[in-house]
Specification:
- It contains twelve helices and 21 strands.
- By secondary structure, the protein is α/β, with parallel strands linked by helices.
- It is globular, with a radius of gyration of 21 Å.
């Protein structure tokens, strides 16, 4: 949500604020990327960001790190800049799919160089505008391809008519989030036909945007309550949200948690039992690593499906989970589109993170109930939650 707000603010018609932004590596990379192209971004005393739109320009260099939102949301903006913008990132970022977006931008009139790879590094030779119009893509490997074009589509000369043609679209809540935020910026978006989005050309109306709590980052803390029989309350849980983390109450209930919502927030209490589940996580794939960790200590088997696209995230999350849970003694089998998890007595060992924040969180959850689990590179959680370690210590009483 923070990175979508930053993109829309940068394309807006006047200065605005991003209120209570998530401050983490991914969002800092986004802010730096936009600043490199001329957007004014200032830190305010209360932690908000002040955004001043400006004429986008190159030359600029963008470090995407390992952030899918930066590597995919910023190139359409760079196509509106005047001058070259170069993109590169962490070594594994060069393996993450980018081809559908590269092809779409070319079809919409962009001049770019990717060496024919459909992967980073790429250079976009901006001409100050982009023709836009109709384009068809296969976004089955990432919903971010759709969001990237939706966020900038109103600034294309002909707007955007975007059609998905391919396998099932993953992470639909993230596309719904993009549509909602674009509409809130005064842009007309027609999504009445499934897998077809029409964005009319026009101004992006700047407004102050207040960021919700990051619900996906609540997952390991709620999971801690479920597997230990403890209790965790997250304040200010929104009554309605487009975030995938909004599905956590139902999923945690199925796993054995007791969920209560009141004016203070959302509270999850462990019941003393953890149950296996059969769950299609296609729309909420980012929750998979933490949920898989809970399933590994359940009282019965679990099947997690609809998540084949996780093979193209920060790492191949299905292979990584099968390997790391297996190394601790769990019986895990990869399927075409997910995992089958058959719990067995677990033992300690090193749980590798693969430089993936969600994998590191999964290892931390298991370490609560399995002696001797050592999470390699827990610092990678700073990708989206810089003080995860401090918050985890506080959760366990070490920080009080």
């Amino acid at each position: 949500m923070t990175n979508r707000a930053l993109i829309l603010a940068a394309l807006g018609d006047r200065p605005s604020r991003v209120v209570r932004p998530l401050r983490a590596r991914d969002t800092d990379l986004m802010a730096r990327a936009l600043y490199a192209m001329g957007v004014g971004i200032g830190d305010l005393d209360d932690g908000d960001w002040a955004i001043t739109p400006a004429g986008l320009h190159g030359p600029a260099q963008v470090d995407v790190g390992l952030a899918g939102t930066v590597m995919r949301f910023v190139p359409p903006v760079a196509a509106l800049a005047d001058g070259p913008v170069q993109f590169d990132g962490d070594p594994h970022a060069r393996l993450r799919p980018l081809g559908p977006l590269v092809g779409a931008l070319r079809a919409l009139g962009a001049d770019l160089d990717d060496g024919g790879r459909g992967l980073l590094p790429i250079t976009i030779h901006g001409r100050g505008a982009l023709r836009g119009g109709a384009v068809t893509i296969d976004a089955s490997s990432s919903s971010q391809f759709v969001s990237a074009l939706l966020l900038a589509g109103a600034r294309f000369d002909k707007g955007l008519e975007l059609r998905h043609d391919g396998g099932p679209l993953p992470s639909l809540p993230h596309i719904a989030m993009s549509v909602a935020m674009v509409r809130e910026a005064g842009v007309e978006v027609d999504d009445s036909v499934p897998e077809l989005w029409r964005v009319l050309p026009g101004a992006v109306r700047s407004r102050d945007v207040e960021i919700e709590p990051d619900l996906s980052n609540a997952a390991p803390f709620f999971a801690a309550a479920v597997i230990t029989g403890g209790r965790v309350m997250i304040p200010d849980w929104p009554a309605a949200t487009t975030q995938p983390g909004g599905s956590l109450p139902d999923l945690l209930t199925a796993l054995g948690g007791v969920v209560r919502r009141d004016a203070a927030g959302l509270t999850v209490t462990g019941s003393g039992a953890v149950h296996g589940i059969d769950a299609d996580l296609h729309e909420v794939g980012e929750l998979t690593p933490v949920l898989a960790a809970v399933c590994a200590v359940a009282d019965g088997p679990s099947t997690l499906s609809g998540i084949g696209h996780l093979r193209f995230h920060e790492t191949d999350r299905l292979a990584a989970l099968a390997t790391e849970l297996g190394n601790l003694g769990c019986d895990v089998t990869e399927t075409e589109d997910g995992l089958r998890i058959r719990p067995k007595p677990l033992h300690g060992g090193v749980f590798s993170s693969y430089n993936d924040h969600r994998m590191a969180q999964a290892g931390a959850v298991l370490g609560l109930v399995v002696d001797g689990v050592e999470v390699e590179n827990i610092a990678t959680t700073s990708k989206t939650l810089p003080d995860f370690v401090g918050m985890w210590d506080h959760l366990l009483g070490a920080g009080t």
